[in-house]
Design goal:
The structure is a single chain. With 330 residues, this protein is mainly α. It has a single domain, classed as Na+/H+ antiporter like fold, CATH 1.20.1530. The chain contains 15 helices and no strands. Helix 9 runs parallel beside helix 13. The longest helix is centred in the middle third of the chain and has 32 residues. The radius of gyration is 19 Å and the shape is globular. The termini are far apart. InterPro entries: Na+/solute_symporter_sf, Put_Na-Bile_cotransptr. Keywords: Membrane, Transmembrane, Transmembrane helix. This is Bile acid:sodium symporter.
Length: 330
């Protein structure tokens, strides 16, 4: 039961509940307009809290490990997109054209922050470097992901302009984040004391975006066009993509001579994709009716990566304490 609880936590169950409710009680008409405004406010609050929670001291502590950071960025923003394109002959027939676009969007996203750091800490990896890499990946992704979306998917969202899309993302995501960093001087201690309670605010924002996105998909009738075989194929595709990325990140870490602690950081920071960033960003980049299909691969991949990385982190945590033969390269 404990292992089952680890794989399916309260947030995962809440996500499944929201997906189940959306087809029965979708938001339409004026309700949809209200939820779109509410979602925009929730996204701003989400990134404001991210900025308020992130310690600049912790980021600076790992900032000097530039070779590891570059490799994490390479895995996140180069290797993932290349794999998405290279696997097209396999993935497109397996999941269908619409869900394959969602797979490409998944490949363009930045890495996670919270879970990458949590798993690195559990596995006794280089936590300061994980904090720096994951935080920088999220910030870089605000600018880089829209460009990658254009290059990979050949579309430019609702705005018709990549620069306009970046501007909207900066206004809705980066500005609240920076405001949170500035406000941390006054509210940082309060945020730290109430971290567990504020986690509910983060998760509620994501649930709201998911409900709005899936409601739009239901209203447009998109779910009627997705066969069950494609959904099963999507699960297989996500497992295949994650397995390849985990193997490649592990291989690159060994070939480049990183220490075990740094390889652990690379494994967890370079193989994960951010649901917390990806869902709100999709709301900005794509039409409301298309968001549900776009984020479905991300939601499934997110759960699979959590389950697999939980097992890997526990395995690393049980390893014997052995001194490294040489210091990690800088």
């Amino acid at each position: 039961m404990a292992k089952l609880r680890l794989l399916f936590d309260n947030f995962t169950l809440a996500l499944l509940a929201v997906i189940a409710i959306a087809p029965v009680l979708p938001c339409e008409g004026r309700g949809a307009v209200f939820f779109e405004w509410l979602t925009a406010l929730a996204i701003g609050l989400l990134f404001f809290m991210h900025g308020a929670k992130l310690s600049r001291e912790a980021i600076l502590a790992g900032a000097g490990h530039w070779r590891l950071h570059l490799l994490v960025f390479f895995c996140t923003f180069v290797m993932f997109p290349l794999l998405g394109l290279a696997l097209r002959p396999v993935l497109a027939p397996l999941v269908g054209a619409e869900l394959y676009l969602g797979m490409l969007y998944l490949c363009a996203l930045p890495a996670t922050v919270q879970s990458a750091i949590a798993f690195t800490s559990l596995a006794r990896g280089n936590v300061p470097a994980a904090i720096c890499s994951a935080a920088a990946s999220s910030l870089i992704g605000i600018f880089l992901t829209p460009v990658l979306v254009l290059l990979l998917m050949g579309i430019e969202g609702d705005t018709g302009s990549t620069l306009d899309s970046i501007g909207r993302i900066v206004l809705q995501l980066l500005v609240p984040f920076v405001a949170g960093q500035v406000a941390r001087r006054w509210i940082g201690a309060w945020v730290t004391r109430n971290r567990n309670w504020l986690k509910t605010v983060d998760q509620s924002s994501i649930l709201l975006v998911v409900y709005t996105a899936f409601s739009g998909a239901v209203v447009e009738g998109l779910w009627q066009t997705v066969p069950l075989v494609n959904l099963l194929g999507l699960a297989l595709a996500c497992c295949l993509l994650l397995a390849l990325v985990l193997w490649l990140t592990s291989l690159l870490g060994r070939l480049l001579g990183f220490s075990l602690e740094d390889r652990i950081t690379l494994l967890f920071a370079g193989s994960k994709k951010s649901l917390a960033t990806g869902v709100p960003m999709a709301q900005v980049l794509f039409a409301t009716s298309a968001v549900g299909m776009i984020i479905l691969p991300l939601m499934l991949f997110h759960q699979i990566q959590l389950m697999v990385c939980a097992v890997l982190a526990q395995r690393y945590a049980r390893r014997d304490e052995a001194p490294e033969a040489s210091p990690s390269p800088r």
